[in-house]
Design goal:
By secondary structure, the chain is an alpha/beta fold. It has one domain (3-34, 55-113, 122-146): HUPs (Rossmann fold, 3-Layer(aba) Sandwich). Helices cover 37% and strands 20% of the residues. The chain is built from 4 helices and 5 strands, in the order E-H-E-H-E-H-E-H-E. The protein has helices at 18-34, 63-83, 95-102, 126-134, and strands spanning 9-13, 37-44, 86-92, 108-112, 138-142. Strands 3-2-1-4-5 form a 5-stranded parallel beta sheet, sandwiched between helices. Helix 1 crosses helix 2 and helix 3 packs parallel to helix 4 (126-134). 36% of the residues are buried.
Length: 149
């Protein structure tokens, strides 16, 4: 298919942090400028899932509740009108790996500069660093104070 005829696709990582909220607003504005769509992706993983000592399931995790909270987060940040332009996806896995995978075929991957967790003094969070290194498309890293609501 001719690449010029495809609708641009923007993937944005969401984790509820101020940086990811700013990234979501930036992604929606950018998609509006280029006539694109937005996939808001939240990743979840079981702590220690890759080790022998960890349980295979997390009895406290409720996937339906997490999906509902993701939709609610998008609506809270964008309002009803803006949220209608966004497709929410909750994906199990390491956040950086999930975002790189979800960005296959996308025109842009947008992430916040620092999400929940990590060191306060770090200029970039570990997820933003990893996606900047491994993403299959252009990456934009948004600081929470760089985008006005």
């Amino acid at each position: 298919m001719d690449r010029q005829l495809e609708t641009p696709r923007v993937v944005v990582g969401i984790d509820g942090s101020p940086s990811s909220q700013a990234a979501l607003r930036w992604a929606v504005r950018y998609a509006g400028l280029v006539g694109g769509t937005v996939d808001a992706v939240a990743a979840w993983d079981l702590p220690g899932a890759g080790t022998w000592s960890a349980p295979a399931v997390d009895a406290d995790f409720d996937e339906e509740e997490a999906e509902r909270r993701l939709v609610e987060e998008v609506r809270t940040v964008l309002g009803e009108g803006g949220a209608s332009q966004v497709h929410e996806r909750l994906v199990r896995g390491n956040p950086a790996e999930v975002l790189v995978d979800q960005a296959q075929g996308a025109d842009m991957l947008v992430v916040g500069s620092r999400g929940h967790g990590g060191f306060r003094r770090a200029m970039l969070g570990s997820v933003s660093q990893q996606v900047a290194l491994h993403a299959p498309c252009a990456v934009t890293i948004v600081r929470p104070d760089a985008v006005a609501a």
